[in-house]
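Q: Please design a sequence for this.
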């Protein structure tokens, strides 16, 4: 039995791993954030919006939609998470929250880059 892993399979596995990581980190940050202060409430709104975009991305991938639809969903997710990281970075959030939002934004950018490479 010959095992041959194509570049396409490696890319698909990388995308799946990033989606799983995004899902877990997003859920952890949502559950750890208590809406007591204005920046926390804004962060929760951004995380809820990101969760919606992540669900849309998962569905477009699962439904084998066109590459431009998948890229559009990834772009929307990246936009929301980048905005959240920028807002939190300028606010009064603790360092752990800042790091988590930066990590989320970085993962979203990496996901978008991999999907763009995959679409070519």
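A: Design:
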């Amino acid at each position: 039995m010959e095992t041959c892993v194509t570049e396409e399979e490696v890319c698909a596995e990388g995308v799946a791993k990033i989606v799983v990581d995004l899902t877990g980190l997003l859920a952890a940050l949502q559950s750890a954030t208590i809406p007591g202060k204005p920046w926390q409430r804004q962060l929760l709104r951004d995380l809820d919006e990101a969760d919606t975009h992540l669900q849309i991305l998962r569905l477009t991938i699962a439904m084998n939609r066109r590459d431009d639809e998948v890229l559009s969903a990834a772009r929307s997710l990246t936009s929301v998470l980048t905005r959240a990281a920028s807002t939190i970075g300028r606010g009064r959030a603790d360092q752990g929250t800042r790091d988590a939002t930066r990590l989320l934004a970085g993962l979203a950018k990496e996901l978008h880059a991999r999907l763009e490479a995959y679409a070519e």
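Q: Thanks. Anything notable?
A: The chain is about 85% helix and 0% strand. The longest helix spans residues 7-32.
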